């Protein structure tokens, strides 16, 4: 007897919302999410209290995944802090070339959600702080004279790369950002 394991409604809602909010933005309708997840509206409210709660939970999930990608990228570059920091821009170059790339999920959320009290903003701010802390730690290991400020500059280059990857992909934004990053990380 063959059994089919079907994910539970909560997991299906998360998967559908993760996909649709990235491909279509956080303005995607609840009905589209429910249809893709193949769940009843009641499941959305039972598990997340509504669309805002679902978006917040998707962001919590994706920030963990994306922070792990930054760590893995740096670890794969070895022990040299300079190489580890520049590897991020090499990786971003591959990210923005992906045909399914739609920009930075977190920048998109912050721009689309105009309510400053939306729970998503706290999550995107924390994500940004976590990535900045990774950069700052590497800059400190490198002996940079102002690791905090340099980490802010690298974050600006990362955000710019991800934005330009959508709006000006032919400009090869990751390559340009990497060149600027080399200047920022020089102690």
From TrEMBL:
DNA-binding region: 29-48
Keyword set includes DNA-binding: yes
Superkingdom in the source lineage: Bacteria
PROSITE patterns: HTH_TETR_2 (PS50977)
UniProtKB keywords: DNA-binding, Transcription, Transcription regulation
InterPro entries documented for this protein: Homeodomain-like_sf, HTH_TetR, Tet_transcr_reg_TetR-rel_C_sf, TetR_C_31
Residue ranges of the TM segments: none
HTH tetR-type domain mapped to chain residues: 7-66
Gene3D superfamilies on file: Tetracycline Repressor, domain 2
Protein name: TetR/AcrR family transcriptional regulator
Source organism per UniProt: Tenggerimyces flavus
Upper taxonomic lineage: Bacteria, Bacillati, Actinomycetota, Actinomycetes, Propionibacteriales
